Structures are given as structure tokens and as C-alpha cells.
Amino acid sequence: MSRRHTPVVVRRSVSRALFALAIVSARSVAGQSPASTPPAAADTAQDSAADAAHGGGTARGGALGGAQGSAPAMAAMAEMPADSGSPTMHMRAGPLGIGMTRQGSGTSWLPDGAPMHAQLIPIGGWQLMIHGVEFGAYDQQFGGSRGATQLVGIGWLMGAATHALGDGQLGLRGMFSADPWTTSPRGYPLILQSGEAFNGTPLHDRQHPHNLFMELAAIYDTPIAHGLAVQVYAAPVGEPAVGPVAFPHRPSAQSDPFAPLSHHWQDATHISFGVATVGIYTHDIKLESSFFNGHEPDQHRSDIEYDDHGPVLDSYSGRLTVNPDAGWSVSTWYAYLHRPEQLEPTVSQHRLGASVLNDRAFGSRGRWSSALIYGANLYSNDPRLSNSALVESNLDLDGANTVFGRLEYVAKSPADLFVDTPPPPAADRFNIGSASIGYARVIGRLTPYLTTSIGAVLTLDAIPQTLAATYHTRTPGGIGVYLRIRPAHSHGADEMSAGMTMR
Ligand SMILES: [Cu+2]
User: How far apart are the CA of 258 and the centre of ligand 1, in A?
Assistant: First the structure.
């Protein structure tokens, strides 16, 4: 088994830099004293922040702090009732007046109206946004000896800081996951899941853990002409312009702790060790291209997987995204992945697909987020396209109760599932169907900054007769019962239409 080594020095300096950043951030927040801000100054701060929101990102955002008269800025924000509707703080818009809620994973776009659960923290001229989620789940998967039961922690934490720079805006991002330690080095049980490897064997019936470093990226946006802007994204670890918004960031997947079975046909490139993306966009249309490292992460989840000289950008992609209005985002993509899989070192892939994301209000306090995704792989050793399709929806009925579900189809190979190839005339690809349904309910605030919910998801899969002996059934499945923690504040469509005020 070959493993690409990172010099230890690189790893240490990365983690040192991150800790230093965290400490500096904490000090900056604590050092701010909005307690002494007179009300008039607070009003001024709001006004200039409003200007920043409307001014195409050229205004400095340093006045975002001190909107309320209590000590640290974070506490001040937390004291605002989440649903008061009072415009107390403004989210900063990027070039062309595009708001932060459009920001998906990597450089992808969400519908503007998509809810974003995040805390905004002003630090000097920077605006820091913290978001993430952690599920603590009881995970039980059924499928004969391939089933398993485990208590797991699944989640991620992201900090995204933005600052005006020149005519544009600079962003720095770090996204982290504790999954390698809170699930297991082999991830968590998920019947029929495939992708990546452990100790020289394909991971099957388990979802691989996400890496400690999910994203470390710098992103710069600047207008270049009237109504036209460019974006440059450089990421030692990050997401190239491939696929839909990755499932951990997708509003339609927000209540389901488990990965889609079609992850490796759609959005599995979301952790790539070396990404350079250039995009050009109008307010509604974005065209982008990436060069990136196409190798899937190996089982060593806390390193940055470069060879001796740094990242090798051996793969490429292109993606077109259209956001015709605040409710919709439509994308299509193509990627060439150079020898992505560790256990099939001579096989390259073409990956293509399309997605339609929708987000709309539901009733007076609810929100309905949905996705329709098609994703396909074409392997260099097989002329047949391998297809997947996914529909998922998350219906927040009233701000407290959510029903959600997912339907999937994916064709997996004997190698994917680590089974023998059935003798002809049986198909050597297995058509797999999967249906999940779940319910989640907000149970309260854990701290002023965090909301907790409980939830459950039930999955039933359908597999062909040729797999029945392996799984002891034609209908394997699973259940997950969880406690979810995430930032208390939700930013969404209302603030977009109201000049991006934060509630
Ligand atoms: Cu993933």
C-alpha cells in the first residue's frame, strides 16, 4: 500500500498556524469592548454595515461590531432573540451584491434563500462566520453479518473570515471534522455504502470518516466589469468545482446524519488535497474551472496528503451554475479524476452530473429545502456509464419540527461492495435503491450559541437477488437516533430580501 508522505514539518506548522489563529481570534473577540459603545455609535455601525451590504462589498466592514451594549461581541449577538426579526446586524454581501447565504461548500452556490445556521463575529475589519454541526447518534445497520451497531459522532466545524481587499473581498476558510475519532478510523456503519479504503481493503457497508482538515482555503472575489466578477480559490485542502453542494453543507440534507449512498458518484471530491479554481460570474450565472489533486484521501485522516514536493494537480473540472432567483440553484459539471482510488491505481474516472436545488418558505415560520441530483462515473476500464440519482427534502414545518427524506438509486460494482462477481448472465453491477425518512425536533438551547435537536432516521434499501445471500435479505436498512448540536442563529431568505440583516 503506497502512502504519500507529508513532511512532518508541514503538518506541524499547519496545526501551529491554526492554533495561533484560534488564539488570536479568541483574543480579538474578547478584546473588543462594545460595552462602552454609546447607542449613537451603535446606530452608526448599523448604518455603515448596511452600506457594506448594499455597496457591492467595497465598503469596509469594520463597523459591524457593537450592535448591542453588552460585552463580547459574540455574547451580544447571542442575546438577540433568534426570531425577533429586528434588524440588528447585517451580513456582508460579496461583489455584485451576492449574499453570504448563497455560499455553499467550496465555491458552489446555494439558492440565496437557503437557511444558514451560523454565528457572525466581527473581529476588526474581518467578519468571522462560524458554522457547523455535530450529530451524536446511535447507528444500527441491518444486513446479516454486514450490519453493525455503533455510537457515533458525525460532524464538522467551519470558520470563514472575510475582509475587504482592493475592490473585492478576501476570504479565509478552515473546516474541520472530528469524525476519525468520533466514528472510528473506518468510519461509521452504513449498509451498502462504499468508497475509499482501509488497510488495503475497500471500505464497504461503512461511510469513511471525513478528514480532520476538510478545507483550508483562501478565496478572492473582485468585480472586473459592470455586473461581472471573478473568483480565485486556492486550497491546500478543499473542494474543486465538481458536483452539487456537498451533502454536509446541503440544506436538504441538514437533518440526516448519514451520507448518501451515491456520495462517490456525486460529491466525494469535496475533500481534495490541492485545489485551484477560477470562476467568472454575473449576479445569476457562474462558470468555473478547477485543477486539483484527484486522489481520494487515504486512511490517515489527520494529515495533508501531498507527495514530497507538494500537491499534484493531476485532475480537472468545469461547472456551470445558474441561480435564476432566490429560490433556485441549478448546476451541471464534468470532471476528470486521475486515478482517484488507492486500490485501483490504474483506473481514472470521468464524473459528470447535474443538480437542482430549491429553497422556499413554508407557512409563516417554516422552510422547505430540496435537491434533485444526477451523478455518473465513467471508469477508464469500463465503457458503461455508472449512474446515480438522488432526491432529498428537508421540510422545517414551523422552526421546531422537521420531516425529511431521501430517495436514491445507484449502480455499484462487486468491487465497490467487496463481493464476488456473480456468474453470467447475472449483471455485474448491482442496482441499489434506498429510501430514508426522518423526523427532527428542536429541544432547546445548549448555550446561548447552540441549538439542540433530537431526531431519528429510518432507511430501507432494495438490492438485487444476486446480493441477497451476502446481506441475508433483499431489503437491508438502518436506523439512526440522534442528538444534534449546531449554531443557534439561522440566516435565510427573509434577510436577503430585507437587505441581508441578521436576526
Ligand atoms: Cu465525504
Answer: 10
